[in-house]
Specification:
Number of strands: 11
Number of helices: 0
Radius of gyration: 17 Å
Shape: globular
Strand content: 35-45%
Helix content: under 10%
Length: about 160
């Protein structure tokens, strides 16, 4: 017998709609050096690293048990600064070598699980940290963060936020 595969499900599985979730970008980079070399030592992570805070307003969870949930994760992608153009960028979209068109415009660790950390006011908070992201192309871009939750065998995209 085979294991069921995760499916992307637009329907809520936890009973909470997207209004219950708040994403706040606590730290975001303003500039990054584009990485063109083939050597790993030439790659410079964006600084400061992006940090996104998750808050869930759920009256049924006053103890904030979601802070310990291994089922929340966030993905980061690069999008055009002009939000009228949709979709994730790839090197091929930007006039780069067609042989690298399938490579992402970002390099590094583009997925983060939820981390329970102390906030600046010494309270517990849920944070997604992206310490190792490098930009592969030059230009003006925005970062897009997409929040997902895995419930049983269903993967649900909860929220997407594009930052300035």
């Amino acid at each position: 017998m085979t294991e069921p595969r995760a499916a992307l499900d637009p329907e809520p599985t936890t009973g909470l709609d997207s209004d219950a979730y708040t994403l706040t970008v606590r730290q975001q980079p303003e500039r990054a050096k584009a990485f063109h070399g083939a050597k790993e030592k030439d790659r410079k992570p964006i600084d400061p690293p992006p940090i996104v805070q998750l808050q869930i307003s759920d009256p049924q969870d006053p103890a904030q048990n979601y802070l310990q949930s291994p089922y929340f994760f966030m993905c980061c992608s690069l999008v055009d600064a002009d939000l009228s153009r949709t979709g994730q960028l790839s090197a091929g979209h930007l006039g780069e070598d067609p042989d690298t068109a399938s490579e992402s415009a970002l390099l590094g660790v583009l997925v983060s699980s939820l981390h329970r950390l102390k906030d600046t006011n010494n309270t517990d908070g849920g944070f997604f940290v992206f310490p190792d992201i490098s930009v592969r192309v030059e230009g003006m871009f925005r970062l897009r963060f997409s929040l997902f939750e895995m419930v049983k065998y269903v993967l649900r995209e909860i929220f997407t936020k594009t930052v300035d």
